[in-house]
């Protein structure tokens, strides 16, 4: 996930670069053709810009650029063909409906960087993650080899030698300079105020070649609002409000939807530690999982449904865990994010038609490695619980040859898995979330002991050692007349 983040981050950075270029050269000479030429001379793409809108009375503070496309470089870009002479638009890996930027230059006179708005509208990004960890966007941001039909001067031996010399000189200066500490906002002599920075109606598609999965992020709205940061007064000016809404769909190798999460997230962040000015490593979010989100084919549920020997021995049938489970209502909860680790700060319950899933406080997922450790509880559907318990009763009848009521013995064996007349299965799942280790959270007496000899021995009037492994089972059998 970390590598996916790098790929997406690079794409967004490229779009912002286009916007910055437009602001630096703001004026009547800025045209789509001018911007395309600047972009294609800087990075290894074929670019397209539909239009540039600059306010006549606000030329130094606001600009809109529409129809930005970044595609793999081709001969048209290599030759530097003017935009107006190109016969068609390229099919882009990165597309943007509109970039809208408004900056207050007057605020700089008071040592304040004030950005009223930086909004990317309807961006579309198509990212493919290769098995070696690379992605299809990396090549777009390299220096182009050919510009205007000739070898790029920036890649000439003289230019490269000059660049290398400058880098070596910079390295020497860094080596001779006293060691610097980590970045602190207190070292920046300017306050930062921003009204709105974000993405609206974004779409990101990530294809995972190694697993065959596809991750689709749709209706992406990311807003950083009311940004107020002043390193000289972090007690009063150290705030960022965040809203993040998105529909996230995971499609498996079989081309079927494995999960869909309809998310609404908001938080009031304190971006820097007040005392030191260092970046705050922890962020707390309020998350709402919307109704109609669903999960299907979760590996931990598959293990519980049919692969844990203890459940099979007890005769519990939990096939509903393998079916699609849709959320019946919105569920809100808090999580903490720190260095790629998402930790649950409370204990939400997610009600579905087939079961209610409870997550224990402190459960976590590390998004950069897919490692997780989660303690959960599964409260099974009431009707299905009755059917499953009836299956256990049938096994007991077979073991006892129909003598007596099996319910008392069943309660001794699986009674700690029943809550409010429903099966309740606490469990722990850990390791790689795609292939997790799953453990039951309670002890479970096994019917193997009974079927293998304990019941038969009791029927014969003998108390076997195996029966003693089931607490209270001996008394239950005596009560049944064995």
From TrEMBL:
GO terms for cellular component: plasma membrane. Pfam families: AsmA. Residues 1-261 form the AsmA domain. Coiled coil: none annotated. GO terms for biological process: regulation of protein targeting to membrane. Residues 161-175 have a biased composition (Basic and acidic residues). Residues 161-182 are annotated as: Disordered. PANTHER family: DUF748 DOMAIN-CONTAINING PROTEIN. This is AsmA family protein. It comes from Leptospira kanakyensis.
